Amino acid sequence: MSTHPTQPAAAGPGAAAKTSSAAAFALVFGVAAVVCVLTAIFAPVGLVLGIIGLILGIVALRMTRRPGVTGRGVAIGGLVLSVIALLVAIAFATGVTTFLNNKQAVDRLERQVEQLRDRLPH
Known about the structure:
Blueprint: E1 18-19, H1 21-38, H2 43-63, E2 69-70, H3 72-100, H4 103-119
Parallel strand pairs: 1-2
């Protein structure tokens, strides 16, 4: 008679806990969102990544309530970074919109671009 079980043991009190994959992905998307938003050029991408990270973070927090699933801190980290990215992206979009709706500011920018263009060697 063999001492090796043919089927894996059911997860019980002695089983190792598994980190929620949703929590890990929430953290990854949160970090990526913050990086994209801070580069300003990729702010729209950061906004989308922040929304995905926020959703994954909420799902991960719910998953960590289950027995044998860990990663609550990772999920909270992903949520915090995603919210920060969303707030910065919204502030950036608001600032750009306000600037573009200000005719005097746009005229000043056009004059500066023309001056820089005139300084370029031909």
